[in-house]
Amino acid sequence: MNCPRRGLYAITQTENKTLSALLAEVAGVIQGGAVLVQYRNKHPHDALAWATALVALCNSYEVPLIVNDNINLAAQVGAAGVHLGQDDGSIRQARACLGAAAIVGVSCYNSLERAREAARQGADYVAFGRFFTSRSKPLAAPAELATLQLAKRELTLPLAAIGGILPDNGGGLLAAGADLLAVIGGLYDGANPQQAARAYRALF
Predict the structure, then answer these.
(1) What is the pTM of this model?
(2) Which segments of 10-144 does DSSP mark as H helices, in order?
């Protein structure tokens, strides 16, 4: 599957949830308009089984599922790709393991130079953030709108924004150049993930 150029990028929230609850939430956000899903689990248990189930679910909707941080897990479950942080391996390693068609995203924090290098190495998208206070990334250094604006002028690959994004502040990020809004808490903290996803989709 190709990397979506624009839209809602839903990242899983796995803490204190059963697999069935997680699958129901992810189905809801896809039905609400998510175009890309990332399996993120910083304290994995049964990661292989969970990721396998998520791949099957996302494939049934023809929405790419990528794995956060773990190239080997992405390969094991046949995920559409992987998202790489600073210490998660290289784009070259990801391509060697997952194939040339895999979606490879790279965290660039607030670094335009890191984004340039990722683009040179063949990343499919780059992600900047955190832009707002974020419960999932409370210690992350803030990113600046100016970095997003400069990246939009210079790079041709999709730009993802992450960190505390809500329907009422996401529009400013899109105006600054973001193509993908990556969201965790804003989708799952309320009672209805599908309805929350629709609110983000409306921004596009």
Answers:
(1) 0.96
(2) 19-32, 47-61, 71-77, 91-98, 112-120
